[in-house]
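Crash report, auto-generated. Payload:
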Amino acid sequence: MAVNIRRFTDYLPIAGVRLGVAQSNMRYPERDDMVIIELAEGSQCAGVFTRNAFCAAPVSVCRQHLQHSTPRYLLINTGNANAGTGEQGWQDALQSCQQLAEAGQCAMEQVLPFSTGVIGEPLNMTAFERGIPAALQDLSDDHWDRAAAGIMTTDTVPKGYSQQLVIAGETVTITGLSKGAGMIKPDMATMLGFIATDASIDAVLLQRWCGQLADSSFNRITIDGDTSTNDCCMLIASGRGGLHIDRDDSPGADALFAALKQAFQVLAQAIVRDGEGATKFVTLQVNGAAQPQEALDVAYTVAHSPLVKTAMYASDANWGRILAAVGRAGIDDLQVDQVNIFLNDVQIVENGGRCASYQEEHGAAVLAQAEFLVRIELGRGDCSDTLWTSDLSHEYVSINADYRS
Amino acid sequence: MAVNIRRFTDYLPIAGVRLGVAQSNMRYPERDDMVIIELAEGSQCAGVFTRNAFCAAPVSVCRQHLQHSTPRYLLINTGNANAGTGEQGWQDALQSCQQLAEAGQCAMEQVLPFSTGVIGEPLNMTAFERGIPAALQDLSDDHWDRAAAGIMTTDTVPKGYSQQLVIAGETVTITGLSKGAGMIKPDMATMLGFIATDASIDAVLLQRWCGQLADSSFNRITIDGDTSTNDCCMLIASGRGGLHIDRDDSPGADALFAALKQAFQVLAQAIVRDGEGATKFVTLQVNGAAQPQEALDVAYTVAHSPLVKTAMYASDANWGRILAAVGRAGIDDLQVDQVNIFLNDVQIVENGGRCASYQEEHGAAVLAQAEFLVRIELGRGDCSDTLWTSDLSHEYVSINADYRS
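Recovered output after restart:
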């Protein structure tokens, strides 16, 4: 199942960025499962990574390489996450970088490795011997679509985004990919995002922006609350276009940031739309919080409530479940009679109780739609937050319970 | 579904405690749905209540009455939670107390009200007119079994416990009831526990013990992580037996506390065994934590992970999912290579990776059982915690999504 998402195909190339795809036989034969993204000399690259303490070996290597060099290649394999693999996993990740560095004539530290797939099994190193030369051979600035398909695990749809706009008189292109659908079927993991622009962005600024952009997109989605060991999101600035951004107040910086934010959010939301067993795409907005963290805590508590999620699956406007989730979100001095809750424009809770004008069929009509907004007003202050989530369906249980048995 | 639980019938009466059951037609006709527990003069009663900010009107009334008087009656109705009902709900709860106080000839503050059932609908007050006289008429020290059935909502089994033992040369009896199966089907809520002993216990000590006992039992179970608006747990000491406990170091205090702890834990675990859609009863033990809270955080993160819960449902010893949940439990300086995980005696994770000796069929054999232990060793210190949870099945989704639609 997937909610209002179709394969994106209108990719615009990014000058300075080429992509190559290959069949490496990492785990399954005859599928595109290895992707190389080549960055031209002078490109900048920033990243944010999983906060899971059990982060996979390629994530640790990636972090370290990013600190000590300017990347030339991103090497992505699907089928094996190289997670929970200890010292051997670390050595294997380094060796895959070494192989690409030799073939691509750069330093090993200029290669960033990304793995997604089964946890706890050793990497198939012969797959790199086969896949790296083939993917290098395949490099083209026109292969975004095949790359989006080549990094999928149990995604049902390749996920992409592309936009061209004029900022401060310069034409700027933004193109990106993402993958992920939860922590996915038994032993499968990882959300990945790769977003590139031909603008030139100062390296320190790029890293800060990457964090801020991920916080408003990939860090604001939840399907099942389970953080993978392999999550990575990379922002690439090839610098081949005419726009140069050195500081937050450079001409065009605001517009570029806004355009990148849209790219990040569309790609993040695509993961929710393709979420495991998802039949609903839900925007959860919390307003009137006293602190930013408070808004986020309430939003996550509601988004992770199995009772709220099953009610959404059933198109059941069960305001008691939403209310109970708000009530246990950890706000000690919550004034319950200040709380108002809306489904789109239908008010279901007024001053902490059932809204007098509310009729069940109005709530049910909103929830029968594939996409809707749940808006929670806390009446405590000016802080807000928004996140995106999916429902909890029979299909979710089937995907996660039945597959291996 | 329910895991290794059958109707308990061997109740021993508690001198000074009588129970009456009636059909009040609160929501459904012709079912026992109103219970009165009468406490003889001189009984002490302590309670712990939901921490949900949207606590129901009867919970607020109960808390207040408990502070200002010595209870003579507990009045419990099922079918309607009187939650999310605002000022009217508060007045209705008071009025139900007033009705019982008049009929039972005590002060209104000596009645404690408890409600469980639908959220957001006004109480059916004529049900009390019918139910209170009938339940008073029915009072007997032998009606624990019917009372256990009379407080059920969607529980599949009435839940009880009874034990007699000799402490410090005195015969002591402990008998209790509980109900709950999650936040239960659409709009139904509440876990309730009532435990009585004929020992005499100092009132201040009783309240402290009640909190400590609930923390090691009802506050250590989780089915779906959703806290109800109506949760209450009451500890009653009728004082009609020969054992008198004034202080923690009174003769027999340790033995009585231990016996009460067993009663609390059996009744709490009964709720998990009867959990919505439960097919597995899982004990989650976290050892080697640096702080008590850390052990609890890890245990809850694992217990609430939909991926871990669906894997248990599938009898799939998916150690990667458990590992990933431990990794996102918020321990910043977790040394992943110190982590070991066991299913009963089968080690699945050794030093943060797959245990070398582990074979998948051994893990699957453990998880194929209806009850098993997941033991997580963090290797950071001496703190431990244990909680009990159930799996996430198709039946859970059906109960929570399909019922109202």
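Post-recovery validation: Confidence is low (pLDDT under 50) at residues 184-188 of chain B.
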